[in-house]
UniProtKB/TrEMBL annotation:
It comes from Oscillatoriales cyanobacterium SpSt-418. PANTHER family: DEOXYHYPUSINE HYDROXYLASE, PBS LYASE HEAT-LIKE PROTEIN. GO terms for molecular function: oxidoreductase activity. Keywords: Antenna complex, Phycobilisome. One of its GO terms (cellular component) is phycobilisome. This is HEAT repeat domain-containing protein.
């Protein structure tokens, strides 16, 4: 990427047009992280929440030494819950073990369910077994979307000991919960997992049954 093109993007990010700034931000997709992050920082406080959201997400993809502290600050100080949720998700993309403690805090302490959802997903992305207790707690939430995130994350951290706790969702009303269960069980080799997957393979929703069949194949390879 030539300096001229980068300067063009920088200029476009200063445009009064929200559309122009959005296009410029999207054009950083193929720019190396070291060059992209300084430009991403230009719009982290943009008046448009959509652009701010895109910028925060981009920091999770374009990883430099600056990415983690910037995202951490946003997670801990941002007033808009949507942006905090974006920051939690981006910290998961970084897969930086330093993200565990702030994500756990966000999960337990943030008052918005969307932030807690993003934190649970991110904890799964970190694949840190220390997240087990928080994820098990999320299964008791009244928010179905937290069940989805927690089940998926327990699969990501390969928490075999969670099988009994997540199997109670095998007949969940929400088919996405059942799909996440089918996917998670593919990472949790046990006789109970195999039995549950055979049940889910007959699920009335095609995406659930397909996920169960794929997980059964995966377990066959693991065993």
């Amino acid at each position: 990427m030539s300096e001229i093109n980068l300067q063009d993007i920088a200029t476009q990010l200063d445009s009064d047009s929200t559309k122009d700034r959005m296009i410029a931000l999207a054009s950083l997709r193929n720019v190396p992280a070291e060059s992209a992050v300084p430009l991403i920082k230009k719009v982290l406080n943009d008046e448009s929440l959509q652009i701010r959201s895109m910028a925060v997400f981009a920091l999770g993809i374009k990883q430099t030494e600056e990415s983690f502290p910037i995202l951490l600050n946003i997670l801990e100080t941002e007033k808009d819950y949507g942006i905090r949720a974006d920051a939690a998700g981006a910290l998961g993309y970084l897969e930086d073990p330093r993200g565990f403690e702030p994500l756990i805090r966000a999960f337990y302490e943030d008052t918005d369910w969307l932030v807690r959802f993003s934190a649970a997903v991110a904890l799964g992305n970190l694949k840190d077994p220390r997240a087990y207790d928080a994820l098990i707690q999320a299964l008791e939430s009244d928010e179905v979307i937290l069940h989805q995130a927690a089940i998926a994350a327990l699969g990501e951290i390969k928490a075999i000991e969670s099988v009994d706790a997540i199997l109670k969702f095998a007949q969940a009303e929400d088919w996405l919960v059942r799909q996440r269960l089918a996917e998670a069980l593919g990472n949790l080799p046990s006789p109970k997992s195999v039995s549950a997957l055979k049940f889910l393979a007959k699920d009335s929703h095609p995406q659930v049954s397909e996920a169960a069949k794929i997980s059964l194949e995966r377990l066959g390879e693991l065993v």
